[in-house]
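Reminder to self: tokens first, then the designed residues, so the page reads top to bottom the way the pipeline ran.
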């Protein structure tokens, strides 16, 4: 049975990572969370680049700087310069910084090259915001996930509460809407639906319903 590339794009807090992980497990494919890669660079910026004030993000505009100072690996969780970072990259602060570093051309060039290399052998499920439009425009299956902003904000709110944080719903909703605007209006690789992507609005679907829908779609495409 032939292996394919599955590209999953969509808005924040649509469950892209969870869906992609489950689909990869179902298919026996490799899973790559590209959003986590951008968040790792955002974490690096927050922890290291204030030393470069008053222009702390300026070093990220250099591909040479990125290649020399940032090393991302999976073993199996994402590691930044040899250190596991999964528990650190899911905060609102890192998410907001990720939206600032992701439009930087050198950052995108740096990460897209790594992502494309990961997919050369196919048999991969990759989620993000420009996978079906930029990273793998030739992907055999493209999914675009969406949900109402209020639904996505509630999901994010619940995640933060479960981590022991004390978010304010209105602030989480504003953050969701702000990120939507930044993601869809950035100059480089904005979030948009690929013409051949299958749209899934999971606002009112249970996790079981949406996964069965996606499994059925996958089975028809490989």
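Designed residues (222 positions):
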């Amino acid at each position: 049975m032939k292996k394919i590339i599955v590209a999953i794009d969509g808005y924040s807090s649509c469950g892209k990572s969870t869906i992609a992980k489950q689909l990869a497990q179902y298919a026996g494919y490799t899973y790559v969370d590209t959003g986590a890669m951008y968040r790792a660079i955002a974490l690096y910026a927050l922890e290291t680049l204030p030393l470069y004030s008053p222009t702390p993000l300026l070093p990220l505009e250099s591909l040479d700087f990125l290649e020399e100072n940032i090393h991302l690996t999976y073993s199996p969780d994402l590691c930044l310069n040899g250190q596991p970072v999964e528990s650190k990259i899911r905060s609102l602060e890192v998410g907001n910084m990720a939206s600032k570093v992701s439009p930087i051309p050198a950052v995108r060039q740096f990460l897209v090259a790594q992502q494309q290399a990961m997919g050369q052998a196919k048999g991969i499920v990759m989620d993000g915001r420009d996978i079906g439009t930029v990273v793998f425009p030739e992907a055999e299956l493209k999914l675009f996930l969406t949900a109402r902003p209020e639904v996505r904000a509630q999901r994010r709110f619940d995640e933060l509460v479960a981590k022991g944080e004390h978010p304010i719903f209105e602030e989480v909703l504003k953050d969701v809407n702000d990120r939507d605007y930044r993601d869809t209006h950035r100059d480089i690789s904005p979030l948009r639906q690929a013409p051949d992507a299958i749209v899934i609005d999971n606002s009112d679907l249970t996790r079981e319903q949406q996964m069965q829908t996606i499994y059925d779609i996958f089975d028809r495409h490989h």
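The two ends are 7 Å apart (CA to CA).
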